[in-house]
Amino acid sequence: MRRGNWRMAEPVPFRARGFVARERGWAAAVTLLAVLAVWQIGAELRWFSVAFLSTPAAIARALWHLVISGELGRDLGASLGRLLGGWLGGTLAGLVAGLAIGLFSTLRNPGMAVVSALFPIPKIALVPLFIIWFGIGEGSKLVTVGFGVFFPMAISTIAAVDAVPRNLIRMGQSFGLSQAAVVWRIVLPGALPALLSAMRITAATAIILLVAAEMIGAENGIGAFVLRAGNLYDIDALMAGIAVLSLIGLAAARLIGLAERALLKWR
Amino acid sequence: MRLHRRLVLAGLAGFAVPARAEEPIRLGLLRTLSPAPLYLAQERGYFAAEGAPVVFRFFEAAQPIAAAAVSGDIDVGITALTGGFFALAGKGTLKVIGGGLHEQKGFDLTAVLVSRKAYDAGLTSLEKLGGHSFGITQFGSSFHYMIGRLAEAKGFELKSMSLRPLQQIGNMLAAVRSGQVDATMAIASQAKPAAASGEAVIIGWVGDHVPYQITALFAATPMIAKREAALRGLARAYQRGVADYRAAFLAPVKGPATAAAIADITKYVFTGDPAAAQKITEGIGWYDEGGALDVADVKAQLAWFQAQDMVKGPIDPAEIIDTRFLPTR
């Protein structure tokens, strides 16, 4: 820089480029398609044995066969019912319990003690016990999913309530808002973003537990289907079932994304 | 980097060394009474004497034995021919080489066990099993096969039953004792105590209605291709074990041979159990002379799994059976 000659100063180029996340939706699709293409071509060219690793085409065929035979519809219907019932029940219960623990000091320590003690238990280990308590039918499956979803939801709710800025609450109180109005107008909206991202995680947890619950004593459902295909070493069907599970997960994430967009418009 | 490459080369060289005959054959089996002739052959040194030393690898369930043979963790196995086994064998990885335990009339091996609740409600005979819930370990397991054959023999619809895959034998027993399922199957040493407790009732024995060859000896294809001589030695030792077993348990007269065989078998099962001798003699099952393979029965099993759409695609039975090692029935 030439000192003292301000008029001749060169224009400074705009440097604040990069490091800004820009969405390129097509790139995600292209990446997945490219992986599938390489997989298929590799199989066609015999780069690896297809005896125990299916090909995308074979998986698609197996999937199509399941669709037209109606088997997929039956299993998917049973699984989605359990998933929705268990997840909704567990999420609502976790939300209520988390709010209660987060808002009321009397409940905080006793509630946290119970939640913290039960949260780390691997819920999959409880499946045989749930079968004895709630029967081999739908009961034990709904409870397994719901129980597994409840704890992360409750803990996230407590943390979300704690994270609402205190000064906003104080401000509301200074303006003479009632206790209920503070909760409804300030605490809940403030906690909502964290609650929705907790739901993303509990949705994935619910799918994992659904499969675990369906692996014992279930006649239908995607988990039972995957297990059955695995027992029979029907690799195409096994991978088709896994693809369906992945699609369920993607759909759940998409739904929660839509909910975020609708509920968090005010941000 | 150079060190790394050298390690890889060394590793490849290790794999390339041809298997020597004295290298022990890894044999996969369940820790149950059913492979008893193999226990005798091992304890009496027949495998070593025939130039085919064997190490046992014990498994918890039948299907993983077949999978372990495919993955190269074992060379030979003895187990039930499950749907999963046929699917793997159909890919050219496994071959059945000899016969094993048989369900046979007069041998109380596998019982059909009914919960007290279902029995009192009228499930008193095998013909009435249609429409009831039934606990099995897995789809395509020997239990699945046996209830399918019972359905054919007794004239009820398998499709009308609700089959419950419970993964473990322990779960099956617990489910029928607590009434979670109406019926299941169990081997004598587990079915009799359950019946004695009054929580379940035995309504029949599988062998009396659908005799068949439950287990078979099989080998992984690389074992047959590369170590045929060792496999022949193993087959000879197996035959000697079967001969001892038949002399001890299947001959009309029980004598000192029986006591000696029980002593050898208790090194593997019922170890330290004071009632071991009784449990072994009560649980003993049929073995054909010479460990003969019932080829027609293997074909019938494969056909059943294919008819049920559990084993897919055409599989030529000749491709999954190798009769060069042991006699056939």
Model description:
By secondary structure, chain A is an all-alpha fold. Chain A has ten helices and no strands. The radius of gyration of chain A is 25 Å and the shape is flat. The mean pLDDT of chain A is 88. Chain B is globular and about 60 Å long. In chain B, helix 7 links the parallel strand 7 (133-136) and strand 8. Mean pLDDT of chain B is 90; it is low at 7-19. With 329 residues, chain B is of the alpha/beta class. Chain B is 45% helix and 19% strand. In chain B, the strands form three sheets. A five-stranded mixed beta sheet of chain B has the order 2-1-3-12-4, sandwiched between helices. Chain B is built from 16 helices and 13 strands. Classes of the chains: A mainly alpha (267), B alpha/beta (329). Chains A and B meet through helix 5 and helix 9 of A and helix 4, helix 5, strand 8 and helix 8 of B.
Order of helices and strands of chain B: HEHHEHEHEEEHEHEHEHEHEEHHHHEHH
Percentage of residues assigned to helices of chain B: 40-55%
**Major sheet size, sense and barrel closure of chain B:** 5 strands, mixed
The average pLDDT of chain A is 88
Oligomer: heterodimer
Provide a concise account of the structure shown.
The complex is a heterodimer of chains A (267) and B (329). Chain A has 267 residues and is mainly α.
What's the helix and strand layout?
The complex is a heterodimer of chains A (267) and B (329).
Chain A: H1 25-44, H2 56-69, H3 71-103, H4 105-118, H5 127-134, H6 138-163, H7 166-174, H8 179-214, H9 222-231, H10 235-263
Chain B: H1 2-16, E1 25-30, H2 36-43, H3 46-49, E2 54-59, H4 62-71, E3 76-80, H5 83-89, E4 94-99, E5 101-103, E6 110-115, H6 116-120, E7 133-136, H7 142-154, E8 162-165, H8 169-177, E9 183-187, H9 188-196, E10 200-205, H10 206-209, E11 212-213, E12 215-220, H11 221-226, H12 228-250, H13 256-265, H14 276-283, E13 286-287, H15 295-307, H16 317-320
